[in-house]
Write a structure and sequence with these properties.
seven-stranded antiparallel sheet; alpha+beta; about 35% strand; 5 helices; three-stranded antiparallel sheet; about 200 residues
Length: about 200
């Protein structure tokens, strides 16, 4: 037996909670931006995040409502996606607080920063990987805006690489689940994608 949920018959918040409990786990874009005057560096986690395109390399995150990250990206055309590592769990959660726009989360939470190479917003110094992006486009969908960023530079900590590739066990990324739940990578399984020509024949 299944339980039916009709979005048109439910409060938006209730259906949002259902969606975020079903679409799991969700990777987190820890987005760093600068205000237009360059005075304030903002940092916020966005759990609606994925790769949009490989050639050219484009990633996307969604701002639900008009968040500081969105305003800053619209005004400056730049942002950085920092990976959210397990050791920074408390700090990542703290940057989700609705700080005033003029109060930067780097300073308020005490997060070390480092300069980016190709864009002005700083990177999180203790994040093992970061994607420096320029704004490609935005798409307004209801109460949200999808931000597409072209990746112009990527960095990965040397100690998170194995044979030249980022290793999930060393990156230790966090992901969002439903409600206040988060997840770690847990068990990692390795299974090659089957080829059609290798399928057994009758």
């Amino acid at each position: 037996m299944r339980v039916d949920f009709a979005p048109e018959n439910m409060p938006t918040r209730d259906f949002y909670q259902l969606l975020t409990s079903v679409v799991v786990p969700r990777p987190i874009a820890w987005v760093s931006t600068l205000t237009a005057d360059g005075e304030t560096a903002n940092l916020a986690p966005h759990s609606f995040f994925t790769v949009s395109c490989v050639d050219p390399p484009i990633v996307q995150f969604t701002s639900v409502g008009r968040k500081d990250s969105l305003r800053n990206v619209e005004e400056t055309g730049e942002f950085v996606v920092n990976l959210t590592p397990e050791p920074l769990f408390t700090e990542i959660n703290a940057t989700a607080t609705d700080f005033p726009r003029h109060e930067g989360e780097f300073d308020a939470v005490g997060i070390a920063r480092e300069p980016s190479l190709r864009v002005r917003p700083p990177r999180v110094a203790d994040s093992p990987a970061a994607l420096e992006c320029t704004l490609h486009a935005t798409l307004r969908l209801g109460d949200s805006t999808v931000v597409f960023g072209r990746v112009v530079h990527a960095v990965v900590s040397e100690d998170a690489l194995v044979d030249g590739r980022p290793d999930i066990r060393l990156l230790r990324p966090l992901a969002r689940l439903g409600g206040n739940e988060w997840s770690t990578i847990g068990e990692v399984r390795d299974l090659a994608r089957p080829r059609y020509q290798d399928r057994p024949r009758d």
